[in-house]
Amino acid sequence: MSTVRCESVSLFTLTPGGQKLASQLRGHLPMKCYCAEKYLAHSTFSQGFEAFAGSFKNSVAQAFMRDSAIIVIGACGIVVRTIAPLLADKLSDPAVLVIDEKGHNVISLLSGHLGGANELTRYVSNILEANAVITTSTDVNQTCSLDLLSRQMCAELVDFRRATKTVNQLLVSGEPVGIYVDPDLIELLGFDIHNFDIRGLRVVAADEPIANDLSALIDVSMNGERPDWPVPSFQLIPKRIVAGVGCRKALAPNVLLSLFEQHLARHHLHPLAVASLGSIDIKQDEPALLELAKRCQVPLTLYSAEQLAQSAERFPSSEFVKKTVGVGSVSQPVAWLLSGGQLLGETLKTQGVTISLGVLN
């Protein structure tokens, strides 16, 4: 599965030779190119370049906070010294690639997995017909990595740092690590683990007992309660649940949060399985909704009454709700739109709150 990230890329060159090499990449990546001001007028390949914002160091610092990837055509040492004060966390640092001026080597320098630097390195090296230099242990040992698997799967881990460190170390050490997929995922979503990079993992069938010789188990499930496995286990939770939410005005945020958690528990769903929330746009400033989205760390999608009207015809209508917001039902048509028509379970209706769940295929 491709994990190339090209949302926002900045490329920096330090010499006219670097600008020439950059010209080979510009048609393949949506990126902004920067160089020293003195090279803007004196290089054949400077068209479309912008001058550094004061200095190379300052420009890289701005891009580090802004972009998903940074490419520098120059020496590794210069790049290392420049980004060293900027490093924050593997979960947030952008991908950083370094290319030598002759285009012989493309080096994945930072955020190889989560930032997508390794995959971007392979992509760029193919364009330049260069050598891809990737040093992460799982790649060198030709195994998958739990952090990249979670990203491919759009899934969450309860203890991300500990889980990825433990599992990846076991994999590169040649220890047996299993992966088990909850049958409910297969039945509900047609989930196929073989669509993802699982090199080095032993797939455990649903009807197969968990072998004691496994060093660890990756448990792929959206269920809030899991078995007491006989080996160390790490739950990988696909984010496939959406929720349409309607609520009365000025509802206390803690009330909505409590009811939402209860509704998930009633359906045996882990809170980390939630991918998005939605409601009607008249509720865009409702504190309870905003706080719920914040606590779940998911986007809040808002629909107009007109957008909800067509799908609302499928569900029971309330005259009071229609007079208040312009459409007779909110949570069910919202969940219908968010999930593409795949609703899950019964709608919660209590204390001026309605919550309907849906599932993403």
UniProtKB/TrEMBL annotation:
It holds the Pfam family CbiG_C. The keyword 4Fe-4S does not apply. Keywords: Lyase. It comes from the Bacteria. GO terms for molecular function: lyase activity. Gene3D superfamilies: 3.40.50.11220, CobE/GbiG C-terminal domain (3.30.420.180). One of its GO terms (biological process) is cobalamin biosynthetic process. The keyword Lyase applies. Residues 241-357 form the CobE/GbiG C-terminal domain. Residues 60-139 form the Cobalamin synthesis G N-terminal domain. This is Cobalt-precorrin 5A acetaldehyde-lyase.
